[in-house]
């Protein structure tokens, strides 16, 4: 974790950047094009989107323009998308993957994820992801928002263990038990909403750590993610914030600092509960 292009090796030996840009709730068109281009221009190599975000076309355009303008190759980039709940099921997932590729204008994805654990469909959906992976249409496969029991159910049926689990994670939801389970099974955890959708900025403990290190509150939390071994993908549409968020590779939190942040956990979600969602 020495710089913005530093990677973690997934269980299948594919290298995934520790840090990336999320584009949830970024409007398709100019907003997402400019944010993705700003990220790539400033050294980001991982971009995370999803079918349901409705901005895959803009992400794809940004990738093409960035490659041309900044001399970045497709092989240097790590592009993630996700199959939405309404498209789950074996055949439906295969079609959804092709639709995402078409919208992105790409020949393959680096990572394809099941967006939510739809109980009666997730196993068939996973089998479709396994087929895509075995056919080398995607470099790595994984899930989002899976709790331990979801993973256990899936792994009973799987021939390939998920390489990544992207979940809500921030100081108020540290996901310690899931983290321990993931380490045991060689599943890389990835944090969405790492800044708690802005909710971290009023926490005095984080403000104090920011002052101590001469950093922003966001940088403190994103550094906490990395030092826990968590891939993290904060969202921003402002180039200055995109640059600022990624400036976390030249300082380190002490074990005491880490303990302060760990102690903030309340198992509090700002997003939906994976055991109680209806969409």
Automatic annotation (TrEMBL):
Belongs to the aldo/keto reductase family. This is Glyoxal reductase. Substrate binds at residue 115. One of its GO terms (molecular function) is oxidoreductase activity, acting on the CH-OH group of donors, NAD or NADP as acceptor. The lineage of its organism: Bacteria, Bacillati, Bacillota, Bacilli, Bacillales. Keywords: NADP, Oxidoreductase. The active site is at 53 (proton donor). PANTHER family: 2,5-DIKETO-D-GLUCONIC ACID REDUCTASE, NADP-DEPENDENT OXIDOREDUCTASE DOMAIN-CONTAINING PROTEIN. It comes from the Bacteria. The record marks 82 as: Lowers pKa of active site Tyr. Residues 29-266 form the NADP-dependent oxidoreductase domain. The keyword NAD does not apply.
């Amino acid at each position: 974790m020495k710089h913005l292009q530093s990677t973690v090796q997934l269980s299948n030996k594919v290298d995934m950047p520790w840090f990336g840009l999320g584009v949830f709730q970024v409007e398709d068109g100019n907003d997402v094009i400019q944010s993705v281009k700003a990220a790539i221009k400033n050294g980001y190599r991982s971009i995370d989107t999803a079918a349901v975000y409705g901005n895959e076309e803009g992400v794809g355009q940004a990738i093409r323009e960035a490659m041309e303008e900044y001399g970045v190759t497709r092989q240097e980039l790590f592009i993630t998308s996700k199959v939405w709940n309404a498209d789950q099921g074996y055949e439906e997932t295969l079609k959804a993957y092709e639709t995402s590729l078409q919208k992105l204008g790409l020949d393959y994805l680096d990572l394809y994820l099941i967006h939510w654990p739809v109980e009666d469909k997730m196993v068939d959906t996973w089998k479709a992801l396994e087929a895509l992976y075995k056919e080398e249409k995607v470099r790595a496969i994984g899930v989002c928002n899976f709790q331990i029991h979801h993973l256990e159910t899936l792994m009973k049926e799987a021939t390939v263990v998920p390489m990544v689990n992207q979940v809500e994670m921030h100081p108020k939801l540290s996901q310690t038990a899931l983290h321990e389970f993931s380490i045991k099974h060689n599943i890389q955890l990835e944090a969405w909403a790492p800044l708690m959708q802005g909710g971290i900025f009023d926490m005095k403990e984080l403000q104090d750590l920011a002052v101590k290190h001469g950093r922003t509150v966001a940088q403190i939390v994103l550094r906490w993610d990395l030092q826990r071994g968590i891939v993290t993908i904060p969202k921003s549409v402002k180039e200055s914030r995109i640059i600022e968020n990624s400036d976390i590779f030249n300082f380190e939190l002490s074990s005491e600092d880490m303990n302060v942040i760990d102690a903030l956990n309340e198992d509090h979600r700002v997003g939906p509960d994976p055991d109680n969602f209806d969409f």
